[in-house]
Amino acid sequence: MDDAEFLRRLQERIERSTGEAIELVVDYDHPGRVAVDLESPRPKVIVGSDALKYPGLARMFMQYAILALRQRRPVEEQEFLLYLRRN
């Protein structure tokens, strides 16, 4: 699967899990980054380029984005780790 297809599927999974449309952006300058910008009308999910190399990391980025979008706020590291343990 090429990068464009992978990103399309990642975006679809996030949108399906949260029930809202998002803009998915890849950050090539910060490969390990994950962030959710809730300020814009259409939330922006920013994932580092390492998500394209490491499927496990992409899954964690996806889970973080889903949690942040559902909570409508940034998620602290400890809270995210607890969320991962429960799922």
Describe it.
- With 87 residues, the chain is an alpha+beta fold.
- The protein has helices at 3-18, 55-71, 77-86, and strands at residues 23-27, 34-37, 44-48.
- The chain has a single domain, classed as 2-Layer Sandwich (Zincin-like).
- Strand 2 and strand 3 (44-48) form a beta hairpin.
- The mean pLDDT is 94.
Write the layout of secondary structure elements.
Blueprint: H1 3-18, E1 23-27, E2 34-37, E3 44-48, H2 55-71, H3 77-86
Parallel strand pairs: 1-3
Antiparallel strand pairs: 2-3
Helix pairs in contact: 1-2
Question: Quick recap of the structure?
Answer:
The protein is an alpha+beta fold. It has helices at residues 3-18, 55-71, 77-86, and strands spanning 23-27, 34-37, 44-48.
Distance between the termini: 27 Å
| Share in β-strands | 15-25%
Q: What name does CATH use for the topology?
A: Zincin-like
What's the number of domains? Answer: 1
Mean pLDDT, nearest integer?
94
For the record, the CATH class is Alpha Beta
| CATH architectural grouping | 2-Layer Sandwich
- How many strands? 3
